[in-house]
Every structure is written in C-alpha cells, then in structure tokens.
Design brief:
Elements: E1 9-12, H1 16-36, H2 40-62, E2 65-70, E3 73-78, E4 82-87, E5 93-101, E6 104-112, E7 117-121, H3 122-125, H4 129-139
Antiparallel strand pairs: 1-2, 2-3, 3-4, 5-6, 6-7
C-alpha cells in the first residue's frame, strides 16, 4: 500500500482578469475611433495597444493555472503558455518579496529553483502571495 500523498492544489488567474483586459482592448479601439479625427496614426496606436491587451488576455485563457503543487513538486507556467514541473528536491526556497511604493505594498511569490527564479503576483494566483507561500511550504514532504 502506498503512503497517502498530499492533495494537489492549484492557483489560477481570476476569471474576471482576462475579461477586463478584453474589455479594455475594445475600449481602446473605440477611443481610437472616437479621437482619431481622420488621423490614421492615432487609430493605429490604439489598435496596437489593443492587440497587446488581447494577446495578454489570450495568455490568461490558454494557461489560467499559474501554479500547481502536489506530492511530486511544483508546476509553474513558463513562457507564454508552457508549463515546467519542478520536483521538490529542485526547489531551494519559497519566499514572499514585499515592496512598498507610493504608499502601497506589493507582494510577489518567489520560487527559487537554483538556476531559475519564478515570480508570481496576486493577479497570477488569485490569492495573496503570503497565503500561497504558506500552503506551498506545507505541501512539501
């Protein structure tokens, strides 16, 4: 009989985030059409910015799960929509970086795997990075 394994847990981009990005892209194109006033450069800049937002939203739709943890290790998103599995022995540290700018504190989850460092924010995880860090550390055998 196999020993019990810790249950798999995953964190994903909140569903509203890609929707807001797509709505922003539509808004940019509408604003570009409204303010272009016959100037193709203004409209082109609005369309280029909108395409960037759409590409960013598509990434959220293609790879919504940014971090997964199970008994074997950690799986993180790599590149645009790829995944990388890090076995527990490869994970050197799981920390939270806190920085204050303009009176606001931002947190980033840092997963140090020796030669690679994986950074995930609240928008990637759908939860506070400090809470995720605690769960990841608790899942480590």
């Amino acid at each position: 009989m196999h020993p019990p394994t810790s249950p798999a847990r995953q964190w994903r981009v909140p569903r509203a985030v890609p929707a807001v990005k797509l709505a922003g892209a539509v808004g940019l194109v509408a604003l570009g059409l409204l303010l272009a006033d016959g100037d193709p450069v203004r409209l082109a800049l609005a369309v280029v910015a909108a395409v960037g937002l759409v590409a960013w939203a598509v990434r959220d739709l293609l790879a919504p799960v940014r971090l997964a943890v199970d008994a074997d290790g950690i799986t993180v998103v790599r590149g645009y929509a790829g995944r990388l599995h890090l076995p527990w022995p490869a994970v050197e540290a799981v920390t939270v970086d806190r920085r204050t700018r303009f009176g606001l504190t931002g947190e980033t989850l840092e997963i140090d795997a020796g030669e690679t460092l994986h950074l995930l924010g609240r928008a990637d995880l759908g939860a506070p990075p400090a809470d995720v860090a605690e769960e990841v550390r608790a899942a480590r055998p």
